[in-house]
Amino acid sequence: MPIRHATAADLPAIMHIVRETIAIMHESGNDQWDHTYPTPGDFLQDIASGTLHVDAAETGSLRGFACINSCEPEEYAPLPWQTDPPSLVIHRMAVSPAFRREGIGKALLDFAETKASEATARSLKTDTHTANPSMNALLQACGYRPVGRIRFKGKAKPFICYEKNL
């Protein structure tokens, strides 16, 4: 599966996946994403910094995306992380509903692991909503270990933070 840097031309397809993902999240009581996050501006910043990656099908269709960088939310600070820095963090990851259950989420996580190894990071970190069973299951199946829970402002339920030692 070809994973590459995202470009501004990918933004319409990325936002289409975001809208589809938000609808699915809200159907299951998950308010992780909404009309205020993530925004096109978030993705344009990721593109400008070279940290947004997309999985594109042979046909050119975008199947998924993930931002991989070293920016940790301040909410991560009090958690009992097991690995010393440096770490990379996975943000804003989604797979198009049309391509779910085809291994794209795992491929994006594997790609993040490769990027982290190339950057000599000692671990990967991420978080997801407690009401996101698919992402929680994927992270655990790929060797991520729960570290603790955090709350983001404006969100009713907590998020589970994960770490994978490399």
Structural write-up:
- A 7-stranded mixed sheet has the order 1-2-3-4-5-7-6.
- The mean pLDDT is 96.
- It starts with a strand and ends with a strand.
- Helix content is 31%, strand content 27%.
- It has 166 residues and is of the alpha+beta class.
- The protein has a single domain, classed as 3-Layer(aba) Sandwich (Aminopeptidase), CATH 3.40.630.
- Helix 3 links the parallel strand 4 and strand 5.
- The chain is globular.
Quick take:
GO terms for molecular function: acyltransferase activity, transferring groups other than amino-acyl groups. The protein has 166 residues and is α+β, with helices and mostly antiparallel strands. It is built from 4 helices and 7 strands; from the N terminus they run βααβββαβαββ.
What are the SSEs and their pairings?
Blueprint: E1 3-5, H1 11-27, H2 40-49, E2 52-56, E3 62-69, E4 87-95, H3 104-118, E5 123-129, H4 133-141, E6 145-150, E7 159-165
Parallel strand pairs: 4-5
Antiparallel strand pairs: 1-2, 2-3, 3-4, 5-7, 6-7
